[in-house]
Amino acid sequence: MPMLKNPATKYRPFPPVSLPDRQWPNKTITKAPRWLSTDLRDGNQSLVDPMDGDQKWRMFRMLAELGYKEIEVSFPSASQTDFDFTRRLVETPGAVPDDVWLQVLSPCREDFIRRTIESMKGAKKAIIHLYLATSECFRRIVFGMTEDQSLELAVKCTKLVRSLTKDNPDAQDTEWAYEFSPETFSDTRLDFAIRICEAVKAAWEPTESNPIIFNLPATVEMSTPNVYADQIEYFCRGITEREKICISLHPHNDRGCAIAAAELAQMAGADRVEGCLFGHGERTGNVDLVTLALNLYTQGVNPNVDFSDITKVIDTVEDCTKIPVHPRAPYGGQLVVCAFSGSHQDAIKKGFKVRDDAGVGEDGQWQLPYLPLDPADIGRTYEAVIRVNSQSGKGGVAWVIQRALDLDLPRGLQIAFSKVVQKHADELSRELKPHEIQRLFETEYHLNTPSRISLIDYEFSTDRSTSPSPGLGKQNVTPRRTFAGIISMDGREHSIKGIGNGPISSLADALKSVGVDLDVRDYKEHAIGQGRDVKAACFIESLIRTQEGGKETVWGVGIHEDAAQASLIAVLGAASKLVSSRPGTPLPLQRKEHLEAPRSSLASEIKVNINGLEQAAANGVH
Ligand SMILES: CC(=O)SCCNC(=O)CCNC(=O)[C@H](O)C(C)(C)COP(=O)(O)OP(=O)(O)OC[C@H]1O[C@@H](n2cnc3c(N)ncnc32)[C@H](O)[C@@H]1OP(=O)(O)O
Ligand SMILES: CC(C)C(=O)C(=O)O
What we know:
Bound molecules: acetyl coenzyme *A, 3-methyl-2-oxobutanoic acid
Number of helices: 19
Radius of gyration: 36 Å
């Protein structure tokens, strides 16, 4: 059967609230509401396997640690597990922080109310929560009650609670509060919702210092969130003695708008929100308390709950509910602080660089492309932010290398290496983990293994008598440097010699004698680490002519404690790539008449002029 062509025959649109002078659209949320976690009640009652006592215990401890001050811990009349868990909390010294209220739920049935209150005997702070459905649909279908009969039952039960709690001389050690939920408020005639709550209020007689809680649930979310906000504003305006009332929200997520409903309804005047971590609860769940809190946080409002170790929260919730947190759940999901695609990675990487360069501290103003929240604020490491697959670009790859090896790759090298990564990711058809990208880089640029051409030993000598610098007169001469060293080419050692203005150019000159004509285009270096452990990282870009007559660039990377030696390693890395780009070409490439010296013949003469070289390297390409 296809879906109905005209669903209007079966489903009616939700009637709007007539509130032409509604005020809430002009309001903003400037402080956190009172929170009530119902993870252990609404969240629990909707699990395939409800939590056992120990799981509830763990969850309670975590909720208290997170900062929740009102926690609905059970439906004590439902099961022995719930009753016993409640008693365990009450009876275990120190289990419940002094400022935390335990809340318990009961239907409007006398025996259940008595059992519920019995479960709280001896508690420091207790909220007794009664519910009774008030909508026409529920009264007719579930209870067979008129509005007046519902009102009478609600009042009778409220009076019973009162007599067993705040009016009970034997229960004065406990600070009692009372919550009444006209269940299915969202589908209840608003004037009746107000009338029944007025009657309950009169029966309870709240005070300003201990207000009654009217919890107005969207038991089933049936309308757009603005309608819920209208309903709340209408109720807030209609109820008397507003100062003796705490208006609480309990939005469910049937239409996927629970967050919006909770936020708009706070703008409409609500003081308190009931929900569950990561939106557990009946059907599509209760409103997600994590999202609500972090939405406030990212607007600069302290939510009064702390998700600085969100991974621990997720672990506990998953363990207790046996339901995984969706990878795309707002804030908490594994994938929400990750970027795979190139343009996102590029923007994020640039964002972090701008932040670093500006020296913005941990609590400095946050403005970063694609990331509404600093992942570090919820205990996420930056490593997890950028992940690499075949959709990724150079920025993401460079980020991983920077985090893994502390190397700040020049743009050209980013482009070159990202091609290597992309090819690999394409071949594997999956994400590449940071350690795989690191290994690819180390292999590609021979960080841990010798390249085809590698440095065995070398020395430099300087001739200051030649080459006057143009325009500087005869006294100012640019010293000429001679490189003399031994290199290994595909396992065979060769001694070579060359002259240039600095270490790079003199080695490049020396390489000509073995047929390697290196056209050094770019040179970048930076320090890695600090103090005694500092190393130099050097990147050499060289232009090569392809066999087809085109031009390509190759990169060499050198890392060494000695800056000059780092640059020589990088030159030889680029030279190796050059010869490798001509498959089948044996080394040496052109001239066979160069020296093939046994290493010992030169090694005894070698003395490295480190200071001169470092200076030359620091000055760039010569
Ligand atoms: C919207 C919410 O989430 S409300 C909370 C819902 N949570 C739960 O139901 C979890 C715990 N519940 C239970 O363990 C059981 O349902 C119990 C112990 C409460 C009741 O069990 P039973 O007595 O076997 O009743 P059962 O569950 O079959 O039916 C519910 C009965 O309570 C009545 N009822 C439902 N809600 C209420 C209420 N708020 N106040 C008074 N009676 C109510 C129903 O009309 C029905 O009455 P009926 O038997 O006269 O037709
Ligand atoms: C008991 C009430 C508050 C409830 O869970 C609901 O209406 O969803």
